[in-house]
Request: fold
Amino acid sequence: MKKIHEKLKIFFDLKILVKVIYGLGIFIVILIIFSAGMSVGFHKATFGHAWGENYERNFGVQPGFNGNNFPNAHGAVGKIIKIELPTIIVQDKDNTEKVILIKDDTKIEKIRNAITSSDLKINDFIIVIGTPDDQGQIEAKFIRIMPAPGFLNK
Reply:
């Protein structure tokens, strides 16, 4: 038994073994980082694909984008034409209809006073700032009700 113990002690005292264990540990960490990067990349690609598939349907843009007909996907400026909470439909200044998703953490203000989503009314002029989701809707982070500007009254 003493001989086996001494042989194991000598084996584990070898510097080569320590280097091999460190090398394997570094290799495993590199593999974990690489797989995490692949996972994030896959998630981003899936989001981009789903968003692109729904873009024309949700934002009302005709095929063949050019600089003149590419709408803002991160917000909307226009009047409310339909309310079905938690979503509202806004007719943007270029007559596209945008679907706005109101979440619990969406901040809504009328001029500078805080209000709730139930205070929104059809024909209210709003400015929306948010992010597009994978359904092509805009998840509103901030909504402000403003007086309608002159270009809507024409």
Summary: The chain has one domain: 1-154. Strands lie at 75-84, 87-92, 97-110, 113-115, 125-132, 138-146. Confidence is low (pLDDT under 50) at residues 63-67.
